[in-house]
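User: What would this chain look like folded?
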Amino acid sequence: MRVQPRQQLLKIWQAVVEHSYHDGEWQWGGRDGRNSISDAEQLLCILGPATEVDQFTLDSPARVADDVLTVMRPLGGMVDAPLTLMDAVESYLTTYTDKNGTPVFSAESYFRDLTGDELAQLHPGQLAQPVVDSFAISLSLSLAAIGFARQFRKILKRRSYLEDIDRLEALASKRLSAAMVGLLRSFTVDIFDVESRSGLALRRTVNQRGISSPRVVPRLQESLQEIRASLRDVTMGSGAGLADELDRPDRLFECGWSWGIVRDAPPISTTQEVGDQAAGLAEPAPYIYFTVVALDAIEALFSPRTRQLGLLNEEQSRLAQGLQLRWDLTQSYWSKIAVPGGGGRWPLEDIPWQRITEKESDYFSLHVSSIVVQDLVRKRAGDAELDRVGKVLEELANRSRINRRVFAGDQSYQLHAPGFPISLGGSDDLGGPRLTWVMSDFAPLLLKRTISLAGLLGDPQLRGRMLALADEIWAHLDTRRLRDDRRYGLWDQPSLAFEEFSVVYQAPSWYHTKRVVDCLITAAQVINEPPLRSDDLADFAAELLSEAEHLYDQELLRGAPNGGEAMQLELQALAAKLKRSRSILDEKPGTASALAGEVLLNLDRFAAARDGES
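Assistant: Here's the prediction, encoded as structure tokens.
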């Protein structure tokens, strides 16, 4: 893998610190100004690796690496740097809590109107609308902050510091609970008639084999039967009262997350202090982008780190169970739609993916691919199925001009810059124009999914192909760094990759930089996994080791240990290599064969010497 996560993360950390910390204070804001999402992204550029990659730990001073300490030096020493970060996190948590004590999850400067213009014409209530992106990133930031604080407090003695940690944990826990409630209230099930525009579009998507229309619906209904039955048990948030509609044979449905709290979503009953639960505006229909954002964030609630550190209290665990149920159902639903049973072409392979609203985009194919991969892993699918997803990712890289040149008149680069707009249904209910959300993270998202898929493949050749694709995507992203000295290591300057895009940015985008950091975290996690075990290589190593051990025993039988002190020491060294080779044979057959080869070469040298003497 050409991506070197350690070196790249250190470079990013240095640039983040140089940009964000001056005169003893954390400096907020980037290209898009300040909002609850961008500020969290800025913090997670550091806190993400610090809590997810062991080699970048900051919460245990005794384990901080020298190069990590060097780039963090402007924030202070081994103790002061974590305290500075915790101060920044507390500043974030207090800034995005209103005067009534309710956490704020608005996107503000990330919103656009339908023309893509600035926000001067928007109603103030529109800007204050909470969005799923903010709920999701608040889950990540809160879990990272609570875990970081709990580990760091172990080395603190001063009472004032401990009180600061307690206060931060309380604020982060409240925001975590409020974000979970927000995600529960943003989940929705959209039910529609089989003959409606949505029904026809969904039937067309799943019908890749040209089956007659009267047979498509019963087959689709049958494949979704278990999901439909389980959705009847959804009682928290916006999913209540679905049973009657779901059971009708002339209805189809989609499930997932809308862009914000769904219109008419009831409040969640909880003993956790979460502040006011405001009414929602979002249309009760899933958006693929926000669904994937929610799925990625919810996964952290039941990760090994969350369980091992006990980051959730009893009531939060109950809320998490509700989210996990929705996570399971949503994963299963989209996977069954994209990868139905039987032979033939998958709907996922019919690029670009078509929304039931009949809007098409390679972006949607990429988002659905990520859901499919997660579901295939859960089902312990083989390399053949994973490879089919890999071919989809390869085609997406080609179509988006990441590893192909942009030709005259080609508009494919616009997927990256300015990005793909999503119209947010219901956002204009308060007055003002309908809001638009612009997706422009195609390249880093594709890189993250490619690296993740490579880590799952067991076949070395298939894995090598995915890693080669990852290298191409990284080379593309590397050209898009900001070029000035202070911000080199931050993103994004798409005009350096696409000459057709003439806009030149001066300030960093935390939206893009954080997503590149996510790619590097994924790369570090894949590298930290044991190397792939090839059965053929393991068999070869076992045979090589067997021959080496046999020849070594023959050497002992000939009386070589009596040949002097030098010979005895050399034989002891060979014995140690044989022992090491045997101990790692299963997990590192290549290394085991190399050690056995060294022993064989030395034993042949002994034999050649004897032949020369005779």
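DSSP finds 22 helices and nine strands in the chain. If you want, I can go into more detail on any region.
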